[in-house]
Structure formats: structure tokens, C-alpha cells
Amino acid sequence: MVSERFDAPVAGMLGGGLAGLLLGGALHNSINIEADNAPWLVLAPLEGLWLGAWLPRAIYSSDEMTTRRQIGGLVAGGLGAAGLATLTSHWVKPTGTEAGIVGGTSLIGAALAGGSVLLADNLHDQRGVGIMLGGTAAGLGVGMALAPRLSLDLELGGYVSGGALLGASEGLVFAWAGRGTTSSDYAGASLVGAGLGAALGLTHGLGSSQAVSRKLAAGGFAAWGAWVGAFGGALANRDPHEVTLGGLAAANVGAAIGYGLVAYDWVEPRDFGWLSLFGAAGAVLGGGTGAIFSSASDPRPVLAGLTIGPAVGITVGAFVLPRLHSLTRSDSPVSYFNFGRRQVAGMSWQLSDATEPDATSADVLAGRSGPGLLRRAAHHLGEAFEITQWTPFVSALPATPGDPTGSSPFVFGVSGFWK
Fold it and tell me: Do 259 and 274 form a contact (C-beta atoms < 8 A)?
């Protein structure tokens, strides 16, 4: 039916029917349809219908496309894939989980490639359809490689669907922040976002499930990324589009960085409170310094300080905290006090439980060395209070009533738990 010749469908059915008859006769002993063949017999025709629906559009230009060619592609793809699946059913037997993962990854590949094509105005032609089909094929290949390592359960399904929904929502926001003007811009952004979100959700099944504290810490890095990105966008241009774009983009980058840091144990989840404290100190110092050089007509210095300060503060904290841990985790005996093991501000303080020597021995007393000044000060500070879960916050006060030209003052600070 794809051909313009009227005798082509007859020749195709006769030739294809004869070939199928010969193959069926030769392979009839190995063709035995059972329940375990169902996933393959469902997946193959569905993928064939998808490829058959788009393949004619990749071969012919839009003005050459006809209903006859479109139907021909669907018939060839759907029925052809069903026939091939039947012939190979003896050797190819994916489980329902494996078939679902392969089908899902093909959708992810199609969404990523198709969304990218929609975002590029110069690819709305045969090349774009070819790219989309290539993304589908790449997704199929990745799915076949990953299917034996994944288990499609309710938890993984929740991560994939939740990631796709969140990614599509972010894509729409990105399109608005990037001043998208056409439906293709919004559709492409949502497809790319959904594909990325679903792919990230799928990676959850490739490793061990992280503890809740690790996920919360990664979310905290995303919050700091949103802070830095939003003020960075305002620094570039004080417009809601730039502020939203910067905040959302940096939030995703921050979440990815935080996930990697806690996954590889470069940063311990319990340290996030201290990192937030360093970030808050950087925000106060940077914002205060920038405020000195700012004016009502030029707030760029304070915006720069609020952008750079937290990033510098968190970076400094990441280098300082390991040193603090080394000071508070000593293996040497401490004879003045027998504190045992304590949890102070999220840090583990391990002091010796060695038996106290005879207090009447002048030689032992003379040879004793007390804990260092920094260690004693940190211990007494921890006895006074415990700081956990520091996070930044930003708010705005209402404008002055009756003053249409008045601005809304912003309030910046940090919040957390003080025990």
C-alpha cells in the first residue's frame, strides 16, 4: 500500500503470504504459543505500530504523504511485527517486567528525541521524524540492556511516573521562563522534561535505595540551588522569567550535585545542617557587603552578594567540616573527662572510655595532657544546644498601603531546629 502502483498490494500479499507459509511450515515444531509468550506478543506489535506510523513520514515529505501510505505503514508495522514475534516466540521470551521496561525506555527515548525536534524550528520535517525514530530505537536498545537489572514494581513505577509528571511540569515552566511563543515550544519542553524525569526515576532501580535522610539532604541542596539561581536570574535581569528560569535550572543542578555527594559519601546527610549554616552565613555576609554598594536605582551589588555568598559559604563548609570531624573523632585517651560517645549537632564525638588511673600517682598526673582548647569549647557548645536542619528562607512584606510606586521589602534569613 505504500507504493503508488495499484498492483503492488496484490503482489505484496501474495509474496508475503507465500513467505509466511514457507516459514510457518519450516518452524512449526518450534512455534508453540504459551502464557510466557504473551509479553513478547504484545510488545512487538505495539512497537511495530509506532514505527510503522512514523516510518512513511520519514521517507516521504509532507506533500507526498497520502492516506494510503499512512495505512500501509501501520499494517506493515503492526502485522509484520506480530508475525515476526510469532516466528521468534520459541527463542525470545521476555518476562512481563522486562517487556514493560523495554517499552518504557522506548517511550523515554521517543519523548527526548521528539521533544528536542519540536524545540528546533528547522527540524519540523523528515529529518525530525528520523531523529525521533532514532530516539525510539536507542530507547529500545537501552531497555534491553537494563531490563535484566531492573525490577518493575510499584515503587519503581511510582518513581518513574512521578519523575515524568514533575519533569513535564518543569518543562512547561522552562518554556514560559524562556519566553516560548508557539505550541511546539511548550510541547517540546514538556516532552523533554517528562523524558528526563522518567529516566531519572528509572535509575532508582539500578542502585540501592537511599535512606530518607540522604534524599532529604539532596532536596536541601536543591533548595540552595534554587536560592542561588533565583538571585542569579534577578542579577541578569529583574524579570519574573529570568528569576524563574535561574531558580528552576539551579534547583535541578543542586539536586543532582547533592544526590551525587551523598550517594558517594563525600558529604554525610547529618552534615547538611552545618552546610546550611555556612551557606546562611555566606548569604548574610555577601548580602550585607553588597548592600553597602547598592542603591535604590542599582541593586545589582546586593543581588550579586546574595548569589555568590551562599555558594561560597557552602563550598567553604564542605572543606571545613572534614577537619572538624577529624578534631572531634580522636582515638587518643583523654584523661581529664570521660565523656563516652555523644551526638553533638549532628557530629559523632568519641572520647576514650579508658579506666581512670590512680589519682594518687604524681607521675601519672604530671604526664596527663588535657583535651585541646578547640575540643573543649566544641564539647561545651554542644552541651549548651544542638543545631539541626538549617535551611534558608526568603519572604516579602506587603507594600505600603496607598503607595502604588512603593516596593515590597524582602526578608532573608535561616530557619532550623535548636535543641
Answer: no
What's the rounded Cα separation, in Å, for the pair 140 and 108? 9
CA angle 288, 290, 291 (to 5 degrees): 65
CB 42 within 8 A of CB 98: no
- pTM listed for this prediction: 0.63
CB 97 within 8 A of CB 103: no
Grid coordinates representing 60 are 516521504
Cα-Cα-Cα-Cα dihedral sign, residues 301, 306, 311, 316: positive
Give 415's strand partners: 391
Q: Pick from 271, 279, 284, 383: which is nearest to 323 by CA?
A: 271
The answer for 407, left when phi > 0, alpha when psi is -120 to 50, beta otherwise, is beta
- 310-313, long-range: CB < 8 A, 24+ apart: 310/224, 310/227, 310/228, 310/279, 310/280, 310/282, 310/283, 310/286, 310/392, 311/228, 311/279, 311/282, 312/282, 312/286, 313/278, 313/279, 313/280, 313/281, 313/282, 313/283, 313/285, 313/286
Mean of pLDDT values over 224-247: 85
Q: Find the DSSP H helices in 209-299.
A: 212-236, 240-263, 272-293
Burial class (CB in 10 A: 0-12, 13-18, 19+), 30: exposed
Burial of 255 (0-12, 13-18, 19+ CB in 10 A): buried
What counts of helices (H) and strands (E) characterise the chain? 13, 4
Pick from 258, 115, 270: which is nearest to 185 by CA? Answer: 115
- For residue 250, give the nearest of 268, 270, 234, 239 by alpha carbon: 234
Q: Report which of 95, 106, 116 is spatially closest to residue 141, judged by C-alpha positions.
A: 106
For the stretch 289-329, pLDDT in tens is: 988 888 878 888 988 998 999 999 988 887 887 777 666 55
**Spatial distance between the Cα atoms of 316 and 279, rounded to a whole number of angstroms:** 9
Reported as a single tens digit per residue, the pLDDT across 249-298 is 888 888 888 877 777 777 777 777 788 888 889 989 998 998 888 887 88
Signed CA dihedral, 13, 14, 19, 20: sign only: positive
